[in-house]
Design goal:
- The chain is of the alpha/beta class.
- It contains 14 helices and 12 strands.
- The protein has helices spanning about 15-20, 50-60, 75-85, 105, 120-125, 140-145, 150, 195-200, 215-225, 235-255, 255-260, 265-280, 285-295, 300-315, and strands at about 1-5, 10-15, 30, 65-70, 90-95, 105-110, 115-120, 130-135, 155-160, 165, 170-175, 205.
- The strands form 4 sheets. Strands 5-8-11-4-12 form a 5-stranded parallel beta sheet. A 3-stranded mixed beta sheet has the order 1-10-9, with helices on one face.
- α9 crosses α10 (about 235-255), α10 packs antiparallel against α14 and α12 crosses α13.
- The longest helix has 19 residues, at about 235-255.
- The protein starts with a strand and ends with a helix.
- About 30% of the residues are buried.
- The model has no long low-confidence stretch (mean pLDDT about 90).
Length: about 325
């Protein structure tokens, strides 16, 4: 049985790239009506200029698969989800782990074998969505072999039902990972697997690093706000927090020499800033006290002392 896909998704409006993502590109693109599968839009999230072109080419250029890699917390999945949110594109996310089987992508029978529930891959192929394999490099290469035909643009045969699914023209495959696909060279990500060269050859690769300091400052100032919408933290304090984060990131990225096996992501920075604002009413040293539950408490003694030293250098006694 061959499935006919819904090729004509409803277009809600047309907007310029500049309207959707910032910048000055006047080219118009379709924004779809979407559904509950479209990620929620974050008004404070900024699609980086250096990544915007690659994402739009992947979605609107010749059909290709995309593998986004970079350090933990750099915003790889958010990049996909927030790009999709602005375009009304559906995302079907697979949170990968080493015990997954290919049927987790395609679907399985429930209720004693009386009802088949379609998996994220099948749904995305039929509906013209994006299937996002989050932390794809956690999967054993043998699990991903079944994707090769789909990555080549071929129909997918679902063994459990005998259904042959033609990929929708808007269907796209994207994976994210902490490694470039060759395994955990950095030794920071213990469960990462080296992937098959033939699989990696079917993907265009995109590297995502941490935000630039001024971009990260904008995120924090737009997110951590007072009731009137103004930034809740002084800009210089926020900049110093970002410098601390970048110093810790450098230690993490060179963990083989430094021994630092944790890092301060933008998520951690937001958590730290939120607590610093809350602690200001009850603490003489809110910035340092806020860092403990936000980050320090997950470190061992030597690592924690290293981070405290960085904070002392940046803040002095004004912690």
């Amino acid at each position: 049985m061959q499935t006919q896909n819904m090729n004509h998704l409803n277009v809600r409006e047309r907007k310029t790239v500049a309207e959707l993502f910032g910048g000055t590109v006047p080219h118009e693109v379709d924004v779809l009506e979407g559904s509950h599968h479209v990620p929620s839009l974050s008004e404070t999230y900024k699609i980086r200029e250096d990544l915007r072109g690659a994402m739009l080419y992947w979605l609107f250029g010749p059909k290709d698969n995309l593998y986004i890699h970079g350090p933990t917390g750099a915003g790889k999945s958010s990049l996909v989800e927030q790009t999709a949110a602005r375009l009304g594109r559906e995302v079907f996310k697979v949170s990968c782990h080493e015990r997954m089987e290919f049927m987790d992508f395609t679907g399985l029978y429930i209720k004693g074998g009386h009802e088949f529930v379609e998996g994220p891959l099948v749904q995305a192929m039929k509906r013209g969505g994006l299937v996002l394999f989050d932390e794809m490099d956690q999967l054993p290469p043998s699990t991903l072999i079944g994707l090769n035909g789909v990555l080549d643009g071929k129909p997918l045969l679902v063994p459990e039902t005998g259904e042959l699914i033609e990929p929708h023209p808007l269907f796209r495959v994207v994976g994210t990972g902490n490694s470039a696909g060759s395994g955990d060279i950095s030794r920071n990500y213990k469960s990462v697997k080296a992937q098959n060269v033939a699989l990696l050859d079917r993907f265009t690769s995109l590297t995502v690093g941490y935000l630039e300091p001024e971009d990260e400052l904008q995120v924090l100032q737009a997110t951590i706000v007072q009731k009137d919408g103004t930034p809740a933290l002084d800009a210089e304090i926020t900049r110093a927090m970002i410098r601390v984060a970048n110093d810790v990131r450098d230690l993490f990225l060179n963990s083989r020499q430094t021994g630092m096996n944790h890092t301060i992501t933008t998520r951690t920075l937001l958590r730290w800033a939120q607590r610093a604002v809350a602690f200001a009413a009850v603490s003489k040293f809110p910035v340092m006290e806020a860092l403990a539950p936000a980050f320090l408490n997950r470190l061992d003694g030597d690592q924690a002392e290293s981070v405290k030293g960085i904070c002392m250098r940046e803040f002095g006694r004004n912690l």
